[in-house]
């Protein structure tokens, strides 16, 4: 039973539904699995939960 974990910034529910559908379909096609055996977990991180180059995301300027 594959478990896929996706770490990302918060996204719209409709986008997550579509991504989960596509990821699941890829496992079904490539591994010949039943869709019910594929689990997708979304781990959404906001600006206080990550840093890049030693600077917290919430402290970074856009661009």
From TrEMBL:
It comes from Franzmannia qiaohouensis. This is 4-oxalocrotonate tautomerase family protein. Belongs to the 4-oxalocrotonate tautomerase family. It holds the Pfam family Tautomerase. Keywords: Isomerase. InterPro entries: 4-OT-like_dom, Tautomerase/MIF_sf. Residues 2-56 form the 4-oxalocrotonate tautomerase-like domain. SUPFAM superfamilies: Tautomerase/MIF. The keyword Signal does not apply. The keyword Metal-binding does not apply. It comes from the Bacteria.
